[in-house]
Amino acid sequence: DPGDAAAGPSTVAAAPDSLAVGDTSTVTVQLRDSDGNALTSGGDNVFLTSSTGDLGATTGTTDANGQFITTFTSGDTGTVTITAYLGTDAEGDPIGTLTIEVEDAEGTPQLSRSLPQTGMSPPVAAGSPSTVMRFAGLFRPEHEGLSHG
Predict the structure, then answer these.
(1) Which of 30, 54, 86, 98 could lock onto 7 through a cystine, CB 3.0 to 4.6 A?
(2) pLDDT for the residue numbered 29
């Protein structure tokens, strides 16, 4: 059986850890004993702080799996820091800190036309990895069937 909760080997994680503005991530604190064993009982207090955005709950008790789970909703773009503590406030032993990257939800505007069926992949615009610009009608086979010579 695991021993009492210890902040050092306990963990805090977010999934996903990269969001668009307004999106939500699940934040999970897993309490462990001093030997690193996950707790198999609940009732320990956990406190969370966030540099920006909105935590669904900043304090609570762990469940029967030694976990405290809440949500984080992003606000502004940038790097968000969330810190977990063992206890009811930031005076408790620090469990750890995680970062979440928040990106602009708008991204680069996309053209609304799609590529003709050529079997080729669309070109990818520089900048945001989630932005793909599609070009259509640039090379039309208008002179198909014409003979040369």
Answers:
(1) 86
(2) 98
Spell 80-98 as b/e; 16+ CB within 10 A means b. bebbbbbbeeeeeebbbeb
Nearest 5°: the CA angle 78, 21, 107 is: 90
Strand 54-55 and strand 45-50: the pairing is unpaired
On the 0-12 / 13-18 / 19+ scale of CB atoms within 10 A, 137 is exposed
Specify whether the CB–CB gap between 100 and 75 falls below 8 A.
Answer: no
* Token duo for residue 65: 């799996």
Q: How far is CA 88 from CA 5, 47, 49, in A?
A: 14, 5, 11
Name residues whose C-beta falls within 8 Å of residue 28's C-beta, 6 or more positions apart in sequence.
12, 13, 14, 15, 67, 68, 69
Q: What is the pLDDT of residue 106?
A: 63
- Token pair 């053209």 is found at 111
- How far lies 2's CA from each of 18, 22, 90, in Å? 33, 38, 25
Q: 């999970």: which residue's tokens?
A: 28
Instruction: Specify the pTM.
Output: 0.69
User: Rounded to a whole number, what is the largest CA-CA distance in the chain?
Assistant: 89
User: Residue for token digits 């909105």?
Assistant: 54
